[in-house]
Each structure stands twice: as C-alpha cells, then as structure tokens.
Amino acid sequence: MTDVTIEKPVLEPTGALSVETVLSVRHWNEHLFSFRISRPASFRFRSGEFVMIGLKGENGKPLLRAYSVASPSWDEELEFLSIKVEDGPLTSKLQLIEPGDQIYLGRKPTGTLVTDALLPGKRLFMLSTGTGLAPFLSLSRDPDVYEFYEQVVAVHSVRRVSDLAFREELTAKWAEDPLVSEQAPAQFHYVPTVTREPFDGHTARIDKLVESGVLFEGIPGAPRFDPETDRIMMCGSMEMIKQFAAWFEANGFTEGSNAAPGQFVIERAFVG
Question: Which segments constitute the FAD-binding FR-type domain (predicted)?
Fold first, then answer.
C-alpha cells in the first residue's frame, strides 16, 4: 500500500492579499476552532479590528470572509476564531486547514471595535456571544487598554460549556501574557455565561445578567451601566447587538465611530 498525498492548492498573492502560512490549529469542539497564521512584517492593525482571510474557491478565485483578529496588535503571529459550518462556502474548507497550509490575508484591516472610537471612560465592557469574543481577546491583551480604563470586562455568552473558547486563559486573567500580566489581575474581569447546559457559573443571557445586576458583581463602580463612566463594545449575534444598541440609545448613550467617538460601538460590517 502507498500513502495517498492530497495536493494542497498553491496560492498567489495579489495587490489586496498576501499569502500566509498556517502555524497551528486548535479545535475546541465539533463547531468551533481557532488557528494561528504567519504575520507579514508590513501588516499593522489596531487591537479589535477585522481583516479579510480566505482560501481558493472552486472557481480558482479567492474565497474571502471578514474575521476579527483575536491576537493583540503586538503579537508576531495572527490568531482567528471561527465556527464550523458543514456546507459553508468558506468554513467547510477552512475547518480542514493544517499547519503548513497556505491562506489568504487581506492587507487592509479596519473596524470600529477599537478604543479610538470611544470617548474616555473608567470601565470598558466588551459584550460578546459565540465567536464575537475574538476582537475582545485582542483588546484584553493590549496594554494600552489598561492605561485607558480602570476596569476591563469581557462578557462571553455561549450555548454550551465547550463553546467557552480561551476560558482557561481568560479565567487566569492572562497570567502568562508578557505584556498585561501585571495589570490584568487587578483590572480585568471575565464573565462567562452558558445558556443551554448546566454550568458552575452564570446560566442566563447577558440582558438578564444586566437587569439583575449580577453582571456587575465584583466590579468596582455602580451595579448598572452609566453613560458618564462606562464604555461598551458589542460583537456577536445580531439579536443581542440590536437589543442592546436600542437600550443604550434609550438610556443616554451615543454610538461611536472612528470619525466621531461615542459611548458604545458595534461592528457594523458584521451586523449589516
């Protein structure tokens, strides 16, 4: 018997895309995985931004999708968090990548989930569902964020316990991180909640945690959102984002952008 070698497609860079190498892949469960790729020396981004990544499509052309960068702006590699969709045009192929494979990376990152789009404040709340955690993984490892805010809170709502990607690192408050391991223990707060399985922590949706005040337990400051001191970022399900955006606007918060900073931001590229 002879080993069968599956020939991987060779990718060619374009004016808008570089070709990078997959360095590692981590499968969290049958629906979720993360992966790290090489970072070109010329690639610059702000923690919280997204970029186009992809593979070669059936027609031979790049098949691309926007992904938030999960690694901080100082990292020498780029990390991404993705769901697995069996019949998804890109994710059906992307979930099969292995170290050594090639992948397309867009040359121009962008986005509004950045500190530049927010007014100065005391507490930063990052509300996420599912893979919406990705940009907040980036921001929570950025030392500048801990200079801008006294308290940094990452809220992650998922259906199952195994969907809590990076739970160990977040629970440890980035204890092994080379740049924020000193600030994070005192300033970083991780609030995971699981809605469809038994869990030894919170088991309610984010809106219920806010209404009951449970979300704010252990976090210095008022047990509620205050437009004077609190700044909010949101990424994840459209339902969660639209619900909270309407609530924040009705309670005196203004939406921010890169051109006009405000008190809360969402990534409109993902919401539509």
Answer: 15-116
